[in-house]
Design brief:
There is one protein chain. The protein is mainly alpha-helical. The protein has helices at about 1-5, 10-30, 30-45, 45-50, 60-70, 75-85, 90-105, 110-120, 125-140, 140-150, 160-175, 175-190, 195-205. It contains 13 helices and no strands.
């Protein structure tokens, strides 16, 4: 540890490594305050280097997120993932954490931003498409709702009633009664007594 402290007075590369290792040592000793201080200094010394390591390696953003979680401060933990995202364009994990947390907090605009990035990183993940559908629905972004639900309908595990109801609501909101009725009919073919479908049909009236 004494050698590491000496390295703090050396060049950027040495300072970064010394702060990171000291952060890990203090974290192992459960001295979260000192661990956070050293990881923050490592991040300041070289933000890009701090982001380049894998999640379970020397990535100081993940170390800080874990420490803030253990300290009972999830907002600061998620803030680390948001800082990491622009420095790690192919990192889906940090974006997923932010999106999931934002959905739980009903911060749908924040979730939508991360989910849009995730569509390029992991375009075949049904969970991400479902999250994007729900966020778009809350934001009344009906075009995104329609696109995401239509993608999900290609997945046999998708609940067809919930999906076609979402399409019906989206088309109704877009003043497209023809497509809205078509989606409602798909629901009623599966369950003729579905109350939500009948309610939408009543709202459509003679449109």
């Amino acid at each position: 540890r004494e050698e590491l402290e000496k390295a703090l007075g050396l060049g950027t590369r040495f300072r970064f490594r010394a702060h990171r290792i000291l952060g890990e040592l203090y974290a192992d000793e459960k001295d979260f305050t000192k661990a956070i201080e050293h990881f923050e200094e490592a991040k300041k010394t070289s933000p890009v280097a701090g982001a380049s390591h894998p999640q379970n390696g020397g990535n100081v953003y993940y170390h800080l997120a874990k420490l803030f979680e253990q300290s009972g401060d999830p907002d600061k933990a998620i803030a680390q993932m948001e800082e990491l995202a622009p420095l790690a364009p192919e990192n889906g994990e940090c974006r997923f954490r932010v999106a999931k947390y934002a959905m739980e907090k009903r911060d749908y605009a924040r979730a939508a931003r991360m989910l849009e990035d995730l569509m390029f990183i992991n375009p075949l993940n049904s969970e991400l498409h479902t999250m994007r559908w729900r966020a778009a629905e809350a934001l009344e972004d009906w075009d995104v709702v329609i696109r995401e639900v239509e993608i999900l309908l290609l997945d046999p595990s998708t609940n067809p009633i919930l999906a076609h109801l979402a399409l019906a609501r989206a088309h109704h909101a877009k003043k497209d009664p023809v497509r809205a009725r078509k989606s409602v009919q798909r629901v009623l073919e599966i369950d003729p007594e579905d109350e939500d479908a009948r309610s939408i049909l009543e709202e459509l009236g003679s449109e």
